[in-house]
Amino acid sequence: MAMAPKPLSKRQQDELRANIPAPRIIKRLDAHIMYQKGAEGYDDPSVVMTPAQVQAAKVLLDKVLPSLQAVEVDNRQPSENPGSILDKIEKLIRERPELLAVAARHTIPAGGSSPGQPTNHQVIDALPLPPGMPRAS
């Protein structure tokens, strides 16, 4: 009875991954796809890959490159909530009131971007102003 192969160490796995020529594989897949699409400058039929070659390339790239579908991005700080964000915006406006004038120049037409949505002017008019600062006409 044959013995099962000894599992690779983390170092050995990393060395194997480092030897996978990802840029060459990507370039070859790109040439294959562009030839299939009939793109200009891609007229060499030797770049055509069999389905097995495409699958092998995918398997190798999966070992080297992270899967984008498994990545979730959350830019919020765990301690931030909508209230604290509004507090930061209000503080910024109090410190730099000229930002209101800049925001007023970049407006959505009257009636909002879709029915029932407030216009930028309505949103800006609802913001609190620093004491003594008059509202723009």
Structure described in brief:
By secondary structure, the chain is mainly α.
What series of H and E elements makes up the topology? HHHHHH
What proportion of the residues form beta strands (DSSP E)?
A: under 5%
Distance between the termini: 89 Å
General form = elongated
- Overall structural class, as computed from helix and strand content, comes to mainly alpha
Q: How many separate domains make up the residues?
A: 2
Q: Mean pLDDT score, rounded?
A: 75
Secondary-structure blueprint:
Elements: H1 10-18, H2 22-37, H3 51-64, H4 82-95, H5 98-105, H6 120-126
Q: Keyphrases for this structure?
A:
137 residues, mainly alpha, 2 domains
Fold and architecture overview:
With 137 residues, the chain is mainly α. The chain has 2 domains: 16-66, no CATH class; 82-126, no CATH class. The chain has 6 helices and no strands. Helix 2 runs antiparallel to helix 3. The chain is elongated and about 85 Å long. 0% of the residues are buried. The model has no long low-confidence stretch (mean pLDDT 75).
